Amino acid sequence: MSIVTFTSALPHRDIEHAGGKYLSILLETLGAKHGTVVAPPLPNVVRAASLPGHPRQTHITAAVGFFTASVENTLRRLDPGLPSFSVLGALHNDPVARRLVKDATVIDLQWQDSIRLAGAIRRLAPTATIVGTFHDVQSQKYSRLARSAQGRSKIKWTLATRLAQLAERKAMRLLDRVVVFSTKDANLLPPGAPVTVVDPPLAAEKSPSHQPPATPRVVFVALLSRPENREAALWLVQEVWPRVRAQVPTAQLDLVGAGANHELEETIAAFPGVRNTGFVPDLDGVLADATVAAVPVHEGAGVKFKTIEALLAGIPVVTTSIGAEGIDPPSLFWGVADDAATFAEHLVSSLLNGDKAQRRADKAQQQVASRYGPEAFVGKVRAVYGVGPQ
Known about the structure:
Blueprint: E1 3-6, H1 18-30, E2 35-39, H2 43-48, E3 58-60, H3 66-78, H4 85-93, H5 95-103, E4 106-110, H6 111-115, H7 118-124, E5 129-133, H8 138-148, H9 151-174, E6 177-180, H10 183-188, E7 195-197, E8 217-221, H11 227-247, E9 252-256, H12 262-270, E10 274-278, H13 284-288, E11 292-295, H14 305-312, E12 317-319, H15 321-324, E13 335-336, H16 340-352, H17 354-371, H18 374-385
Parallel strand pairs: 1-2, 1-4, 2-3, 4-5, 5-6, 6-7, 8-9, 8-11, 9-10, 11-12, 12-13
Helix pairs in contact: 4-5, 8-9, 11-16, 16-17
């Protein structure tokens, strides 16, 4: 059996973002030694290919010329889900990529930009099983941006929403099977290929026992180079944190993740009790030292892995409604709020009522541990991809 995975994010041992972690676990589950990953020559892909833990069989497609790259970048501003021109070109002109596709039993398309290659891939491999994984539903993400935008930005995101909707309808006709991470996302997609909801396998074999630290500490774990996470961090620091410190003067806030820009670094420096730890390869210690996890995101779509990871670590979680999407029931969370005042109230109550908040978190941890464990995941993805036991 031959599986070829198309992705714009190449996993490696210390990959920072949730989707890359999922893909790494998926490749291992499917039997990575029998599969090949095809990826465009993006800076993050080239860098990952030099790091420990990247897939052993990786084919990076050739870079396009300056003019073609300029056209692609211009079009991508209007249509962010556009497939890579490098990979599209490889499907027509690269003998290695074409042979990989023609010989594949299963072709795995990760994220919407790869899913939009389905038509070209189907022409090369008419009998292969094509599986598309929607890490989120882009039409929902862009429609939210359109609602909050004004002027030209509103026009841009309205157009992007329409293009994403058209692409999703076409994909659902071309794909053989579809994977999503929540029932909510399954319901957002148009009719077409059969959809399987796969809960990401984030749970450890044994759930850790969490004890609140002596110092009241709030953590927000995120890749801060992503605009939606950077905006969430700014909102948390500027709008929420002063309200928390007014009632809990000893409270500390850790922003955990790489990619903070100059604006965020300056904002962090201006507010007492806040620090950015940068990238931390092992989050176990960070979460163990936290009293409560904050997930203050107001943009984006799809299940937030950072929310699940905090619940699995046995930490009380305060989140926005978007941070809680696809993770049921609401009782798993210490608080859900979208305005700064209420979000701060939930953080303060968790810090001042540590024992009560921890008991709630312990119950939530028990509820989510089996749902996001490896056994259920392995069974589902092997069924979707038609892979037998290794």
